[in-house]
């Protein structure tokens, strides 16, 4: 209970929703440096899952900042709030039976762990996918020109340059985009997602 606001229990449960949706919902959370390949992999994985008949919905960190996370800052507190909101949105989608694919730098381990804990409380699987690339490779890709801006001092608090990135310690999936092709990273993500969705 939060103050005078009480939790109103429902009479439907995850099993009933899963029967209706024909699948068990879960969240796949892609975390990594800017330029690591999160969005690229999430876009292709969403498409591949849908084409296989698996209902999937992508929540891209940048896109969320146009709506759900509009006005939220990029400092530590802002990032925590952006991750919390994305996590809650993903949880709702997953509770409804969809595969929620979140692509978000989400640089702080504690923020990601809170989302994991919220999923555990709700009995919804949470797969953390570490989109792993050396900083030098991400910076050489610089798909949005943001590293160049950060190096010029035009962006403050840029992850990997003047703000930390805390890598996962026990991610369910580890995608090394500096070594493996985008196609094989997508295939690994899709395979891991489908087996978790079936096994859940
Ligand atoms: P992020 O969402 O992590 O900021 P993007 O997906 O926007 O990163 O950009 C990653 C860039 O790296 C894209 O230009 C993509 O084509 C390229 N890239 C090279 N190899 C890979 C790979 N194995 N997986 C994903 N992206 C890759």
3D architecture notes:
There is one protein chain. The chain has 200 residues and is of the alpha/beta class. The protein has one domain (22-197): Rossmann fold (3-Layer(aba) Sandwich). 46% of the residues lie in helices and 14% in strands. The protein has eight helices and five strands, in the order αβαβααβαβααβα. It has helices at 14-21, 38-51, 61-64, 76-95, 109-122, 135-141, 146-151, 182-199; strands at residues 26-31, 56-60, 99-103, 126-132, 173-176. It has a five-stranded parallel sheet with strand order 2-3-1-4-5, with helices on both faces. The radius of gyration is 17 Å and the shape is globular. The mean pLDDT is 96. The structure holds adenosine-5'-diphosphate.
Write the layout of secondary structure elements.
Layout: H1 14-21, E1 26-31, H2 38-51, E2 56-60, H3 61-64, H4 76-95, E3 99-103, H5 109-122, E4 126-132, H6 135-141, H7 146-151, E5 173-176, H8 182-199
Parallel strand pairs: 1-3, 1-4, 2-3, 4-5
Helix pairs in contact: 2-8, 4-5
